[in-house]
């Protein structure tokens, strides 16, 4: 009985304590609300004084070097590898013989095609002579001429196959990989023979954002630095600028780089492109955050007599976190750079640091 009375007393005291705390908080909130209501109602914003700044368009971009040309050389004829004239790392010239496929069967086909052509030529001569005396018809003579043309085509095809028995390099470059050995049998289904790369020139592939790519042009000269050879400087030219951004909203750019005589730079190495531009005249710029919504809105708020005034401006180049203003602002004016979401034209504001 006594235990029940004690529990009831504790519960009553707890409820009374909670009610006291709630009532106290209510009075504090009412006091704060009353203080705010008696205030000016100004919105807190951050501002920046408008001035002209020197515009620096220079930027750098990192990327990888890739060879100007690379290919996997495939076989076109069936046969056994009889000779290999190069090894991995050898420099080769266009047209140089790299390997030879046993051409015994191919030579036999060529000899057969030559004999077929000679026989067709004799038949054509005989039919031509007989046609003059009425011994054969025009149709028979035409068929003999057609047989000669078909025999010539077969001979050309067999000669091409015999020539292809000598595997020749289609480019100037380096044998990067060799996939065959003497005695190996290759088929005409495209057996991989060699991997050839040309590193006398390389391409540096980098990315530029929308503000950077706007200042690039095909043929522009670019200074190239290699992380592996920091004391060497290479010169390249822009050969490609993407017309469409990738998924990350960057624009791929390719720069053709002349390698030095020792072919110091290797494909796959990292490089840095240093984009430099002529000195620009000072211009009025404001932070991108000053715009209402986005830069394309061309609207900002300026501070005039303690109030936010909506101003229409003409935006120019986007320069990183800043935007060039072509018209609508003067030096010395004050732009609101944050807090615009709570503003309308004429809203009282107070500045904070």
From TrEMBL:
Domain CusB-like beta-barrel: residue ranges: 204-275
Cross-referenced InterPro entries: Beta-barrel_RND_2, MdtA-like_BSH, RND_pump_MFP, YknX-like_C
A GO CC term attached to the entry: efflux pump complex
Molecular function GO labels: efflux transmembrane transporter activity
Sorted UniProt keywords: Coiled coil
Domain Multidrug resistance protein MdtA-like barrel-sandwich hybrid: 78-191
Origin superkingdom: Bacteria
Stored SUPFAM superfamilies: HlyD-like secretion proteins
Coiled coil (UniProt feature): 103-168
Domain YknX-like C-terminal permuted SH3-like per the UniProt entry, residue ranges: 283-350
Short name of one Pfam family: Beta-barrel_RND_2
Similarity field: Belongs to the membrane fusion protein (MFP) (TC 8.A.1) family.
Protein name per UniProt: RND family efflux transporter MFP subunit
Originating species: Pedobacter nutrimenti
């Amino acid at each position: 009985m006594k235990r029940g009375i004690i529990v009831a007393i504790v519960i009553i005291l707890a409820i009374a304590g909670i009610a006291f705390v709630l009532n106290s908080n209510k009075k504090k909130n009412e006091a704060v609300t009353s203080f705010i209501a008696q205030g000016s109602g100004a919105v807190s914003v951050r501002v920046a004084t408008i001035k002209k700044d020197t515009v620096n368009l220079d930027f750098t971009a990192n990327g990888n070097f890739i060879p100007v040309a690379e290919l996997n050389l495939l076989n076109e004829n069936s046969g056994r590898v009889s000779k290999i004239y190069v090894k991995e790392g050898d420099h080769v010239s266009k047209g140089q013989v790299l390997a030879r496929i046993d051409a015994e069967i191919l030579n036999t086909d060529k000899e057969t095609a030559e004999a077929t052509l000679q026989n067709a030529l004799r038949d054509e001569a005989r039919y031509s002579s007989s046609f003059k005396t009425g011994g054969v018809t025009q149709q028979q003579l035409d068929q003999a001429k057609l047989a000669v043309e078909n025999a010539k085509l077969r001979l050309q095809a067999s000669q091409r196959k015999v020539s292809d028995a000598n595997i020749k390099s289609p480019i100037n470059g380096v044998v990067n990989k060799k996939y065959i050995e003497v005695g190996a049998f290759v088929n005409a289904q495209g057996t991989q023979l060699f991997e050839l790369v040309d590193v006398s020139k390389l391409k540096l592939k980098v990315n530029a954002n929308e503000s950077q790519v706007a200042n690039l042009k095909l043929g522009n000269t670019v200074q190239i630095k290699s992380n592996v050879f920091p004391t060497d400087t290479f010169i390249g030219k822009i050969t490609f600028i993407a017309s469409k951004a990738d998924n990350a909203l960057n624009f791929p750019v390719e720069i053709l780089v002349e390698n030095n005589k020792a072919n110091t730079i290797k494909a796959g190495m990292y490089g840095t492109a240093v984009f430099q531009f002529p000195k620009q005249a000072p211009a009025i710029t404001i932070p991108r955050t000053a715009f209402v919504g986005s830069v394309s809105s061309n609207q900002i708020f300026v501070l005039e007599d303690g109030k936010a005034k909506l101003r229409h401006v003409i935006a120019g180049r986007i320069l990183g976190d800043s935007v060039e203003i072509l018209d609508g602002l003067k030096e010395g004016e004050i732009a609101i750079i944050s807090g615009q979401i709570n503003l309308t034209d004429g809203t009282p504001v107070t500045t904070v640091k």
